[in-house]
Design a protein that fits this description.
Blueprint: E1 10-11, E2 14-15, H1 16-39, H2 44-64, H3 67-73, H4 78-89, H5 95-107, H6 115-140, H7 149-198, H8 203-214, H9 219-234, H10 238-248, H11 252-267, H12 271-329
Antiparallel strand pairs: 1-2
Helix pairs in contact: 2-9, 4-6, 5-6, 6-7, 7-8, 7-12, 8-9, 9-10, 10-11, 11-12
Length: 330
């Protein structure tokens, strides 16, 4: 029996049966992955509620507990302590770096301040591991012997810089996504705050109510408002709670809201009218951003149109004519 006779039909030199088998395998894998994702789904609010309850307990302990009791409530992480001792021995752990890392972690939605030491440790370890590995592959293994010295130096330098900046890039990405999510729901939150203020609710009750109403639609904004409501109820100065909100969210709009809240607390101006003006302003900004994206859409769609849509149209329109011409010449 000729082996070639057992082969399936060929299209452009590719066995159709082989391609169909691969696609069937990929489809089966995707179905199993979808079933796993559905059966192992978790409630996203569980982790957030736990973090907020931990913050509430910390504030309670800071107010009601004595100094000795407060010292017992502080949980220590052995891994963090070891990393901190290593960085201290190497003289690379500075208080300014730790504070900057803690602020970035808060803005990224990571409540634990212990990870600040891990961020600094990652800046030290990643260049010594990944950068040294790339250095060995480029200069020691001979895999890139045909490259010019400039290319070899460039690839090593880029890997060292990227590995050093990798923790900051990760945090900046999370901060950007979280800030956009908060910015999207801020006008609706301000409208609800206006309604609560006009209904006679206090500021902390209004924040708590808005967080409960918008927690599912905008979970990041709900987290921040809930935490602000908790701090308003426990902190001695209400201004400190608003300033903490501004420091946790890297967004100019939130800083404007905080400034308005602080001024209304200080001078006794009507809160509802000030928030109504801010809400209208934020809605206009959101509409302007939407119009800007719509204006950029034709220019963005030009490349996909040329690369994917037009060739498909040419094949569909001119394909039958080309087949007829080929049959006529045969």
């Amino acid at each position: 029996m000729n082996p070639a006779s057992s082969a399936g039909p060929m299209v452009l030199g590719i066995d159709v049966y082989t391609v169909a088998t691969l696609l069937a395998g990929v489809a089966a894998f995707m179905v199993l992955l979808a079933i796993y994702a559905v059966t192992t789904v978790r409630d996203p609010m569980t982790k957030r509620v736990k973090a907020l309850n931990d913050r509430r307990e910390q504030l309670k302990a800071g107010i009601t507990a004595s100094t000795k009791r407060r010292a017992k409530l502080v949980t220590k992480n052995e891994t963090t302590d070891r990393i901190k001792s290593v960085l201290s021995n190497l003289k690379v752990l500075q208080d300014s770096q730790v504070k900057a890392a803690q602020i970035k972690l808060m803005q990224a939605g990571i409540r634990s301040k212990e990870y600040a030491v891990a961020v600094i440790f990652g800046r030290l370890v990643l260049p010594l591991t990944w950068g040294v590995l790339v250095l060995y592959l480029v200069y020691g293994s001979g895999m890139f012997a045909n490259w010019t010295p400039w290319k070899m130096y460039a690839i090593v330098a880029i890997n060292f810089v990227v590995s050093y900046k990798a923790p900051d890039l990760y945090l900046d990405n999370k901060i950007s996504k979280r800030s956009k999510a908060i910015q999207k729901g801020l006008p609706d939150a301000l409208d609800l705050l206006v309604i609560c203020a006009e209904a006679g609710l206090t500021v902390d009750a209004a924040f708590n109510r808005v967080a409960r109403e918008l927690g599912k639609a905008y979970p990041e904004l709900g987290d921040e408002f809930t935490l602000t409501a908790i701090e308003l109820g426990f902190l001695a100065e209400r201004r400190q709670a608003f300033e903490n909100l501004a420091s946790r969210v890297k967004l100019d709009a939130v800083k404007g809201v905080v400034t308005t809240m602080v001024q209304t607390e200080k001078y006794g101006t009507p809160l509802a009218s000030a928030l109504r003006v801010l809400s209208a302003e934020f809605r206009n900004e959101r509409m302007m951003r939407a119009e800007e994206k719509a204006a950029r859409l034709p220019a963005i769609m030009t490349i996909p149109l040329i690369l994917f849509i037009l060739p498909t149209l040419f094949i569909v329109i001119l394909g039958p004519a080309a087949c007829s011409i080929a049959d006529a010449f045969k």
